[in-house]
Amino acid sequence: MGHPSGMSAPAPPHGTTGWEPAWQQALYGPGGFYRASAPSAHFATSAQGIPGGGELLAAAVVALARRHGCRRVVDLGCGRGELLTQLRRLDPSLHLTGVDVVARPTGLDVDAWLVSPGGAALPDELRDLPQTLVLAHEWLDVVPCPVVARDATGVWRSLAVAPDGTEHLGPVLRGDDLAWVRRWLDDDDGSDRRGEVGRPREAALADLVGRVRSGLVVMVDYGHTAEDRPPHGTLTGFRGGREVPPVPDGSCDLTAHVAVDALLAHLRIGRAGGEPDTGRAGGRPRLARQRDLLRDLLGDPGTKVPHALSRTDPPAYLAGLARRAALTTLTGAALGDFWWLLVPVGPAPGDASAPGIG
Fold first, then answer.
1. What is the CATH number of domain 31-144+196-345?
2. What is the mean pLDDT of the chain?
């Protein structure tokens, strides 16, 4: 991953700090990026910015809610409520709650809105949720975490960063962070390598799952596993629809992909009765690619719209073409690679099956 300037020798100078607190302040501090900017102004997601995409994502969420007997949906990190608007239109019977770091947008039709501290921290009121589907769509990739690199001698160190984005090698890794890196990032070739330590994301998701009494927690995000882990990490920035160097000054989004295999392993430790405690036991957590899950919930994007419909019902024909185009985009080479982690909690009626691994 490129950076504004080269990495210097150890001993970070005055004014630098570890990436995790710098990242937190840059996104969620008083002048943070997410407090001043609507995500839709800077990047597109499946929920907004793709014609027809938000409606299809909402349809998938409604289908999952019904499959797992959920009468409530919580959209965590919901931006300005774009997906919630689609959910209200598709199923007015659902109780909808939005959670974000800003106040409830004027005119948004939801049943509740909670202001979050930002990052891994969740509102105190968000707890003991019955029959609830909690959607964390592109939340964990903006939960700050330590960024680390191996020095010239092969020793893992934390990375410190200045406000202008200049990085410096910091202290030698020890304790739990070092154990995580050895388990999920290390290799045997001693080459130059860096990455993001996923422990804060694992703790954040376990905390979220523990707040649900019954239902389903759904994490959707960019991610990687040991098979395709980028050797130089994924930390980057976005501003105005363009990828930019990651500078923690509040001027851009800061994001890094999620180590989804580590996340799944962390949850399963809790389900086996050890630490961490992820809340009331439900079904087995599972991972699925977005393309596979959406095909299961919404159908095959390759299914053609009957041409005869263009004569008998032209509006329906055009709507069918638009839906097919949107579904093709959401299941295509880029967005189709998104990971969905589904974590059932407590007794849930209906068919809890979904395609996935593990």
1. 3.40.50.12710
2. 86
